[in-house]
Amino acid sequence: MNNQNNTVLVTENMTALPPPGAPDIEIARAVRPWPIFEVAQRKLGVAAHALIPYGHYKAKLDLAQIDTTSKVGKLVLVTAITPTPAGEGKTTTSIGLTDALNAIGVSASVCLREPSLGPCFGVKGGAAGGGRAQAIPMEDLNLHFNGDFHAITSAHNLLAALIDNHIHWGNELNLDARKVSWRRVMDMNDRALRHTLVGLGGPAHGQPRESGFDITVASEIMAILCLAEDRKDLQRRLGNIIIGRNRDNMPVTARDLGAEGAMTVLLKDAIQPNLIQTLEHNPALIHGGPFANIAHGCNSVMATRTAMGLTDVVVTEAGFGADLGAEKFIDIKCRISGLKPDAAVLVCTVRALKMQGGVAKDNLDAVDVDAVKLGSANLKRHIENMQKFGLTPVVAINRFPTDDAKEVSVIKEVCLSLGARVEEAQHWAEGGVGAKAVAEAVKTILDGEAPDVQFLYEDDLPIDDKIRKVATSLYAAEDVQFNIAASKQLDEIQQLGYGHLPVCIAKTPYSFTAEPSELGAPSGHILPVRELRLMAGAGFVVAICGDVMTMPGLPRKPAALSISLDDDGEIVGLF
């Protein structure tokens, strides 16, 4: 890996920032960003004519103007233990690691997903990192970022409108209105729209039928955009979308309807990766945003490939814990694209392991070595799961000021007993310098022999056995149970010839089981599958398990109630 001469030292950029613990938005605003043309030129070697600017500090990359064939950078996957309300800091670590790699002289960029408005206005917050390891401009990133999600929503709902319009004007395709599977989407949590009736009001307003809404990040079009290789592949995949069945029970596609061309037009700008910067002015390519609990949880293939063609190391993340995000990254994104990670980082915190050990959130500041030992069973399983893919991760302990040295020692002992390198990181408080030890550990792995990354299952394994393989191997389940509807859908998918597709497990992210309250490392449970959705355009089958919803609801006190503009027109309350 080549060193770079334009590294911005962390001390140069961070001394004027508010102290650690200040609101993320205050820290982000305290940094004077570089013009996006300067980031592109100095950090990526990309000329101004290859950028489509969206203001001064963000832009889209015009892939037709960029040569990414002369370099193939190394790929680092950042994943985490099972998430808790205590926080793990996976995105913060991804950004901090990128800054740290640049600080030690490695040309590195970070590839992340775009935030959804759902969690921003719900309970989880934004997705720009935190503390002194953030991507900026964080307000723009978290709200309407360059219009990509709006384009995806529009393309999805255009197809829905064309379906109902086709039925209204004679239904040449003989669609069975009872078997239209294409729902509508919006980028907001709204439980009241999960199940709806459309076409009410008489013949002039369409044919009544049951339908519903999913959140945009669960849209098949979101998955397609993130897995497409280029515009041609995008349109091909859009045409492959199955919208329902005809009265002979045969599948009908968006191509049959003639919809894929107009949908592609709506996505012509959204398909281009977005470029912003970290607090330390390192390149951040942000593109696509499927959730990992209900979708495949990875940023776009195009952004990842572009970054690998422009920097020596690309840091990327997969959503939620390794049982969901990392599994889907490897078994779906890598399988479809041919990409494979050269190293992996597994993020954990003392606080999260205490919660996995049964400590209530209000009591996490108290030293509790026994709880860390108990909760470390969760960490142990995630390390062992990553090793099943051929990757022994570097474990990054995301340090909090309240962490006790004895608690940290417990984590280190667990990691070392499994052959995993472990390092402490304080990037949240110190920026890139705080993650230097993790960066050095990752660089050592990247400088060595490439790992032999393996998929968890082969393509020719039947769909039900693929789901069973994930459940028993990674979740330590005893078996999988399909309800009557899912069993019927399973048979139909196999009969239609889609049994070779990978599976995308949609379940709670908070447990290895389908029950969020089952913490730690439970085993011997049954994974209940209530529905299978064939996403022929994206190229995978979604298995919806337990009570997980593809349209989330808002919490009792949504974050939206604390977000507003001050007298100067500045956003307050966004985190």
Automatic annotation (TrEMBL):
NCBIfam families with a match to the protein in the record: PRK13505.1 (NF010030)
SUPFAM superfamilies per the UniProt record, alphabetical: P-loop containing nucleoside triphosphate hydrolases
Known catalytic reactions: (6S)-5,6,7,8-tetrahydrofolate + formate + ATP = (6R)-10-formyltetrahydrofolate + ADP + phosphate
Protein name in the entry: Formate--tetrahydrofolate ligase
GO BP terms in the entry: tetrahydrofolate interconversion
Top-level EC class: ligase
The protein's annotated pathway: One-carbon metabolism; tetrahydrofolate interconversion
Record-linked InterPro entries: Formate_THF_ligase (IPR000559), Formate_THF_ligase_CS (IPR020628), P-loop_NTPase (IPR027417)
Gene from which this protein is expressed: fhs
Pfam families (alphabetical): FTHFS
Superkingdom, natural source: Bacteria
Entry's family note: Belongs to the formate--tetrahydrofolate ligase family.
Species of the source: Grimontia marina
EC number: 6.3.4.3
Positions with a binding annotation for ATP: T84, P85, A86, G87, E88, G89, K90, T91
Swiss-Prot/TrEMBL keywords: ATP-binding, Ligase, Nucleotide-binding, One-carbon metabolism
Molecular function GO terms recorded: ATP binding; formate-tetrahydrofolate ligase activity
